[in-house]
Amino acid sequence: MPCKKAYAMLSRNVQRWMYDKGFESLREVQCKAIPCLIDANADVVISAGTASGKTEAAFLPACSRIDADKPQSIGILYISPLKALINDMKERLDSLGKCLDLPVTPWHGDVAQALKKPQKDNPRGILLITPESLEARLMLQMPWCKTAFHSTCYIIIDEFHAFIGSVRGRQLQSLLHRLEALIGRKIPRIALSATLENLDGVVAALRPQHSNYPYHIVQDDVSGEVHLFLKGYREYSEYINDTDTEDDMDANPDDDDLLPKDDSKRMVKDIYRVLHNGKSHLLFASSRSLTETLTAKLTKLCKEEDFPNEFFPHHGNLSADLREKLESRMRKGRKPTTAVCTVTLELGIDIGSVDSVVMVSAPHAVSSLRQRLGRSGRRGKPAIMRFYMTESFIEKDTHIIDQLRLKTIQTLATIELLRKRAYEPAQDEAYHFSTLTQQTLSLTAQYGSMSAERLWTLLCKTGPFRNISYEMYCTLLRSLGLHALIIQMNDGQLVLGTEGEKLTGYFSFYTAFVTSAEYLLVYEGKILGSIPISTPLEVGQNITFAGRHWTVLSIDEQKRRIELAASNTGGPLRFQSSSLMIHDIIRQEMRNIYCQRLLPQYLNNTAKGIVIEGYDIFHALGLSENCVVAHGGGILVFPWRGDSVTQTIVFLLKDAGLNAVASDAIIDIALCDQEVFNQKIKNILNGPPPTEEYLGKFFEDRIEEKYDRYISETLRGLAYVRRNMDIQGALNWMRDYRLSLP
């Protein structure tokens, strides 16, 4: 539809606001979205790059609709995975809200009650909320919710990809279904994201069990110019060459950068030279510990050269105050700034335009890489992404796995998939028994009492836990009863038990994910952030946190408070980390790259040499034709599949009597030859097909999710297998392997 027609659909007040704000024209994604949204009669998925205008693509027509209809309740319910994104959105929408006489209310744990009170007294306008706060409202204030949302026109879910497949995502699906059941009608849902693929699958994730509800998909097909650079390093066992070389990455020089083993000194200097250019950048590290270490080293270089510091950390353990100050500094753009960050700046928090994005570890997902790239290249400028990758120097005893240069090839694979616009598909087939436990207790608290049949119908039969049978749900309820979380009354109704009342009485109940106990880190009365209790510290210990060095002065175990003093030296802290699963498409693309001997122009000469070494060993081993090679009295198997398939293959081989372990993309089987391996594969395929129930028996003791301790061992085992393994994928690979044999 031409943009003039789309613009004409907007209300006069919205048009006036656009004029006042200097809108010269609608963007492509906005022209597509407005006619889909203006009637508020269908779900809409909007997939467009960062800074493409997708937020306005949702809010301009949504606000036009409520400006015309004047609903006597909250008109737009906006849900975000981050408090910071809600604060951002509040600032962005305030002027539009004033123009339309619509209050814009942020609602999360850090918002003062005085700001929430007008919305409590007279619900209307736009409500910006987290899933956890919506959980609390439904559970504790059902009458208010029934009034507040009875004529809501739209539910807008930002950064929707962050919810898909996660426990928070399943919680959100359940909350929206419960809300619609409460008010007796469906509310159109709008999903926003920069990284969505298999959009029909996304629609299914947006509204499970209701595939007949109408929907539209809006996609921005415009791709901007992208500049890519990958600089490689070899780590040596001792210093061989420590001469600094001037290296502008754009020049792609003939270099031979050598690193001492376990020391990133040269790489950090190179990063400093490139980023210390008077502009703003994002430097993504793979962990919070690495974030702090890199920040401290880069800050030290600024100090040594007598420059004001430009490098600041940003991760989830820092205080909100420190994170918001950095975000504000980047938004204003008055001073050159590099945020050394984890995934906290991967989502759409407004930090303005950055000149480039830098990564120092192999990406785990194409969708994640796309989110990061979208931070650069705004306002008509090309997006710039730089990679700094280290591999060990090849010596006589270097393992084949290291010789293959898997980290660098994985990076190439994610880059090439990004260039093809091929992302991991939206999938969520997990059972989510832990989240179902939380939702069962929350729903019981919301209504006071519920029958088992009604709970299952609302949560499973018509709700998002669609893969849970009535028998499985009854097993779960019996487990909850054994722990006194619920009690069955004489009339058959279920109510909260003594332990259930205690559990639901804590604020932490509203979160479906695990939240660890933490110590506060305090300097001169100011909270810098927190660290997990599982991270042991001692008085007098030197640590690095918030990009600075500290000495531990005191530890108050009762108050969980650690007092710090400034120091000249520090040390790394250990933070809790979660392993990130690699998808099939990345591993299969890695194999394609090996076979093609791809040498992209964005590699510097050292990186080219590193990948050529990987290609040479790949072809020397005959891996383009075979996937099994003899090694060290055993064999190495190369499935070139994602982690869930690879882990399942390993388990099935172990169950068949082989000593198999997975290392990255490779399976190492000791004391085995290919003939024995082939026979084991044949036996597995000829035997009874492995089931989730059979595999689950080996994992019944796993406690991974928040409420697993209340769930029966049988259900825990099933949940682990469904979450971490792919039985059909493993069997398919085995069949393909068997067919490839002569």
Q: Which helices and strands appear, and what pairs or packs with what?
A:
Elements: H1 3-9, H2 12-20, H3 28-37, E1 43-47, H4 54-69, E2 74-79, H5 83-100, E3 104-107, H6 113-121, E4 125-129, H7 131-140, H8 142-148, E5 154-157, H9 167-183, E6 189-193, H10 199-206, E7 215-219, E8 226-236, E9 258-260, H11 265-275, E10 281-284, H12 288-304, E11 311-314, H13 320-332, E12 338-341, E13 356-359, H14 366-373, E14 383-392, H15 400-403, H16 406-419, H17 433-447, H18 452-461, H19 470-482, E15 486-488, E16 494-496, H20 498-504, E17 518-523, E18 526-532, E19 542-545, E20 548-556, E21 561-566, H21 584-596, H22 605-620, E22 628-631, E23 634-637, H23 643-655, E24 659-663, E25 666-670, H24 674-686, H25 692-696, H26 713-724, H27 727-740
Parallel strand pairs: 1-6, 1-7, 2-4, 2-5, 3-4, 5-6, 8-9, 8-14, 10-12, 10-13, 11-12, 13-14, 17-21
Antiparallel strand pairs: 15-16, 17-18, 19-20, 20-21, 22-23, 23-25, 24-25
Task: Name the descriptors.
742 residues, alpha/beta, 7-stranded parallel sheet
Report the C-alpha radius of gyration, rounded: 27 Å
Task: Report the β-strand fraction as a percent range.
Answer: 15-25%
Roughly how much helix do the residues carry, as a percent range? 40-55%
Mean pLDDT: 91
Give the N-to-C terminal Cα separation. 57 Å
Major β-sheet, in short? Answer: 7 strands, parallel
> How many DSSP helices?
27
Strand order, largest beta sheet = 3-4-2-5-6-1-7
Low-confidence stretches: 239-263
> How many runs of DSSP E, i.e. beta strands?
25
